[in-house]
Amino acid sequence: MPVVVTFVSQKGGVGKSTLARALATFAAAHGLSTKLADLDAQQKTVTIWKHNRAGHRLAPAIDVEAFDAAKAAVAAAKHCDLLILDTAGKIVEGTTQVAQDANLVVQPTSPSSDDLHISVLLFLAMERVSIPRERLAFALCRTLSPQEEKGARSYLESFGYRVLAGAIPEDLGYRDAMKVGKSIAESGRKELDRRAQDVMADILRKAGANIDMKRTRRGR
Asked: What is the CATH number of domain 3-211?
């Protein structure tokens, strides 16, 4: 069975699908057999991105498929190393079940006070339905300064939650990359790529997917 990473959020526009795409390209580039499941029946953001990526003939090719339910995605990915679930940008009836089946639940949030507050409320709600705190992690996105990142990290950690290493800054270079089917881990700008890749590597570590071990095993 694959390692499952689920991206959730209370609202759209905080970076959920952006991170899901970056994790898929990063993991695939490091030798993990990866499937990206689009569970957002209305927007299908990552499905549209898949076609854009294919049109630009970018490598590695990413296995993206739309599903109505997480269980179907898990069944389709049973021979994969990693399954990434990109949920709708809102909490729906099946969100809890999706989170309960994951090795790691990642919630992106901007550093704004409004987003931080509602993000904490979502994880508190997940804990109330028996999702262990150790399987929950925040990802800081759209940061504008080291001071802003530090303040947001301190706020989230004050509630006892894990915050992923690094942060995704607000930068036009990331948007330009995604316009042509790339992910934010493939912008072609060294510092931007490094920052995105640091976050992706920490997601895989916390989810229990060891990319170095996978590459070593396949190289034998």
From this structure: 3.40.50.300
